From TrEMBL:
SUPFAM superfamilies: SRF-like (SSF55455). It comes from the Eukaryota. Residues 1-26 are annotated as: Disordered. Keywords: Activator, DNA-binding, Nucleus, Transcription, Transcription regulation. The keyword Transcription regulation applies. Residues 1-12 have a biased composition (Basic residues). This is MADS-box domain-containing protein. Residues 42-85 form the MADS-box domain. It is found in: Nucleus. SMART domains: MADS. One of its GO terms (cellular component) is nucleus.
Length: 150
C-alpha cells in the first residue's frame, strides 16, 4: 500500500503506448487504477505522468483549448505541461471569477462508481433478456412440435 492508501501490485506489466493515436470510438475499456502496476513507483510515476501529458496534448489539439498541467511528485519536484505560455494561463486562472467546474478525487470516484453501477445493471438486464428470449424460443419450438405431432 502506498502513502495514499492505494494498494500496489508489482506483478503487472503494461506495454509502451507507442506513438500518438486517437480514436473516434465512444466505447473504451474500463481501467482499474493501481499505483504500482509498473513494478517500481518511479517508473509508474514517469509513465503515468507522460500519459497524462499526452492526453493533455491531445485535448488541446482536438478541442482547441488551453491546458496547464502542474504536478508535484512525492519529493515535491515540480513537473509542468502547457500547450501555450504557462504564466498566461495561470494569470487567466487567477483572474477568472465566473462559476466553473472543479473536481476532486472524490468526485471522480463517484462518477466512476455510478458508471460501473450502470454498466453492471445494463449487463444484468442484457443477460435477463437473453435468457427470456432463449426460453421463449424454446417454448415456441416445443409448442410448434406438439401442434404438428398430435
Amino acid at each position: 500500500m502506498n502513502r495514499n492508501g492505494v494498494h500496489t501490485h508489482q506483478h503487472h506489466t503494461v506495454p509502451d503506448p507507442g506513438p500518438l493515436r486517437t480514436t473516434s470510438s465512444t466505447t473504451k475499456p474500463s481501467v482499474i487504477i493501481e499505483a504500482g502496476i509498473f513494478g517500481v513507483p518511479q517508473v509508474t510515476f514517469t509513465k503515468r505522468k507522460f500519459g497524462l501529458m499526452k492526453k493533455a496534448y491531445e485535448l488541446s489539439v482536438l478541442c482547441d483549448c488551453e491546458i496547464a498541467l502542474i504536478i508535484f511528485n512525492s519529493t515535491n519536484k515540480l513537473f509542468q505541461y502547457a500547450n501555450t505560455d504557462m504564466d498566461k494561463v495561470l494569470l487567466k486562472y487567477t483572474e477568472y471569477n465566473e462559476p466553473h467546474e472543479s473536481r476532486t478525487n472524490a468526485d471522480i470516484l463517484d462518477v466512476r462508481d455510478a458508471h460501473t453501477h450502470t454498466l453492471q445493471h445494463t449487463h444484468y438486464n442484457t443477460d435477463t433478456h437473453t435468457q427470456h428470449a432463449h426460453y421463449n424460443t424454446h417454448t415456441l419450438q416445443h409448442t410448434h412440435y406438439n401442434t404438428h405431432t398430435h
